[in-house]
Write a structure and sequence with these properties.
Number of helices of chain A: 4
Largest sheet of chain B: 7 strands, mixed
Helix content of chain B: 25-40%
Structural class of chain A: alpha+beta
Number of domains of chain B: 2
Number of domains of chain A: 1
Shape of chain B: globular
Oligomer: heterodimer
Shape of chain A: globular
CATH superfamily of chain A: RNA polymerase II/Efflux pump adaptor protein, barrel-sandwich hybrid domain
Order of helices and strands of chain B: HHHHEHEHEHEHEEEEEHEHEEHHH
Strand content of chain A: 35-45%
Strand order of the largest sheet of chain A: 1-2-3-9-8-5
Order of helices and strands of chain A: EEEHEEEEEHHEH
Number of strands of chain A: 9
Largest interface: A-B, 9 and 6 residues
Chain lengths: 123, 523
Amino acid sequence: MSRYFTDEHEWIDVEGEIATIGITDYAQEQLGDIVFVELPAEGATFDKGDDAAVVESVKAASDVYAPISGEVVETNGALEDEPALVNSDAEEDGWFFKLRVTDASELEGLMNEAAYKKFVASL
Amino acid sequence: MTMLKEGRPTAPQAVREEHMAPATATGNRALMLEEPLIFEIGSNDTTGVDFAAAPKAVSRLGNLARKDAIGLPGLSEQETVRHYTRLSRQNYAIDLGLFPLGSCTMKHNPRLNEKVARMPGFADLHPLQPQSTVQGALAVIHELAQWLITLTGMHGVAMSPKAGAHGELCGLLAIRAALEARGDARSVVLVPESAHGTNPATAAFCGYKVEDIPATPDGRVDLAALKARLGPDVAAVMITNPNTCGLFERDLKTISEAVHAAGAFVYCDGANFNAIVGRVRPGDLGVDAMHINLHKTFSTPHGGGGPGSGPVVLSEALAPFAPLPFVEKQGDKFVLVEEETVEDHHGRSFGRMVAFHGQMGMFTRALAYILSHGADGLRQVSGDAVLNANYILRSLADVLDAPFGGSGPCMHEALFSDKGLAEGFTTLDIAKGLIDEGFHPMTMYFPLVVHGAMLVEPTETESKAALDQFIMALRSLAERAKAGDEALKGAPYHAPRRRLDETLAARKPVLVWTEPELAEAAE
């Protein structure tokens, strides 16, 4: 399994043709206390860069983009009852949704963990 | 001489420090009264009015008839009056002090406006009265419309939209109607990062796909990025000018030319018109539609004090599509043009947005404001508004980071960031501290392009003394936040309630009041 990062602060784990997507620990820290997460419908399809989910903190509502094209196969229903999971465990239990990847070549150009850390440090 | 030893002491007695603020038995603090919810006072069998017992009637409700008490609050007239008066004392209003809420133009509402709006010839009208009996009211709408057209250099105006976002809707519907009329289906609206938050919402509501245009490092629309994105799918660009960073969009004329060349329209969010009224005519900058918040620029009350009003001025290209009704002067008569009386020149109207004519009470107030200021007075309004904002910006530049301070003067609002505050201290701490200092906090965390934004709009109606006091308070708070004064994290201390748990309130909102006994039983 390999993990990728976007410059919009999403992470993507890819295992076979399924990609799990969430927001990074840096993102949750910037957003502050998360109070609501709106997840996509299962079966919805996205092109890379589409608005896929909404995350709302006490400060603002932010769009989460689909970092890669695909069809939603599963969403993390636990976030609807407990949005605080995004704060406490953004990069594991706080995942948002899983996509069946349409075009794995879109992963090219995304960052690995080291590159993302460097990117965050430059902000 | 006799010495009276039992008299009333007239000077404060020395009080030991720990006795300075003991709790009171009632929870009241002198004139700051602790007030329960209206359901928690009085009793269900009290009313402010005595009714005769209802005559015995045969119920036709069957098993739908209510069996329990209805549970309305039961208060005498005096208890009701006291309840709301006490609550009003916990409120903050422009009549109490400076209201520096950026992007909201909380200026003084002159009492002359109120006097005019209450004149029976305006206040007691019914919207369905025969037109011959409301000629004066129609004349007010017509004259205000002419002023708005003149001040903006536009071709027409739709008076009926009821507030800013409603005006945006009106403008975009006119744009869509104009595109449809030429058989041009376009699907995208471009919104710069420095625009108002309602702009993308309006575009999405109209069914357009919204795309962001980035800002330049000096806080303005990135002209190159905008030009690069224009194309046959773009219906309109929505620009706020001056923008939410408090900056004038210097390139607006160039932007308009590029947008028009691409076959699209320019919507300008006029919420910040106060900064340019009497000095810049948006029509000269190529704007096709712009709403004007009468409740901001033209001093009609808002924020709980009254309804908004958002007339939309339109370019020659869009004016034919404006919504009904219109007031027209025909000879020496004013006529309300509606569906039945529409003639060729309004035949392409996209329809109707409201049942009647708009916010009549706000029209009278706005016209009173305009006429009492005159053209020269309105020009001074924008000059003083900009001067006051720059006074705040420059007076605090040594303690607060002004991200665009280096790019020259600001317009009507001063923008600061949270850069330089001590670790763990935020804009929110400063805002809460301002409550203790007796001010309504500024707009915070907006615009989003600035980290921990503090957006301060003093308006032209504040005196230098009021500005100096506000600057002193904000300076003191900024210094405390930079020095890491832990006490600031607990502010406000002196408000009727301490700092609220906004996270808990958002995650587990309590939206319905339940009787305490029932609530306890449910737990």
